Amino acid sequence: MTVKSRLLELLERHKGETLSGEALAGELQCTRAAIWKAVKSLREEGYSIDAGPNKGYMLRMDNNRLSVEGIRLYLKQPKVYMKLYKEAGSTNQLAKQAAVSGEAGHGSFVIAQQQTAGRGRRGRSFYSPEGAGLYLSVILEPKEETLQESLLLTTAAATAVYKAVEKVCGISLDIKWVNDLFYQGKKVCGILTEAITDFESGNIEFAVVGIGLNLYRAEEGFPQELQGIAGALYPDEESASGTNRNYLAAEIVNCLMEETEDLKLSREYVEHNLVPGKEIQIIDGNRSRRVKALEISQDGRLHVQEEDGSTSMLSFGEISIVMEA
Predict the structure, then answer these.
(1) DSSP one-letter string for 248-292
(2) What is the pTM of this model?
């Protein structure tokens, strides 16, 4: 690790405390000039570090930048592979590349401050403006190597986000089968689970769970096609400033690892799901049909009643809740 990286780790660990240049130099076994050079570099990157003659250095409490050092402080498995990008095309794509190359394994993840080619289901783009959300992809090694397990991985990811947001932000979200989370009637989080399969055997070698969580509305607002659909945990950047992003990112990963240790449908996923009991529209390509959602089965599938009274099970599909007139 560089002096700058080790210094940031110390400042994150003692956020809000003033640490003398002499003590920092002794801890990092470098000169005070090297400390000052590292501080200068961190400030140029946007970190809010106070300093004064004979006082030392302090990372301000309102500093809320994502950093590898800051996230790692809160991880229950801090030694996993983690890569933070200022800008990325798609974190899912980068995570898949890291998994296939053997560079990263189970529990590793990629996170970006901005995505230029973020993807949602059915090839849709996922709006990922700089700083306004958390965009991360976690690599998992499925135990059963079946496509059915990928459905439970998605429900586990939704539960992980629900738990992490409630713990860190004090906000209770609603879950919409199979992979969306809502707040105050607007979608604030989308989840995309992709499998990396062995070409010869067809078995799943890795799964990549991509999570996009909107923290606040970007200054320019949402694109026209998302108006009235997308939302965020907070109305603006100032309102979100009190949330520790590093802690939230780490807690999402921590909760996901816990939820997938013994993969099953969680109580939270069922209790906080918007869909059971509602009339829904199922969209399959250019076709759609209206059904009644009955319940979510233990394997994650949605039990529905068709218009003719028969019942069926959905393993996947795009649905919308039919609003009552």
Answers:
(1) HHHHHHHHHHHHHHT----HHHHHTBS-TTSEEEEEETTEEEEEE
(2) 0.90
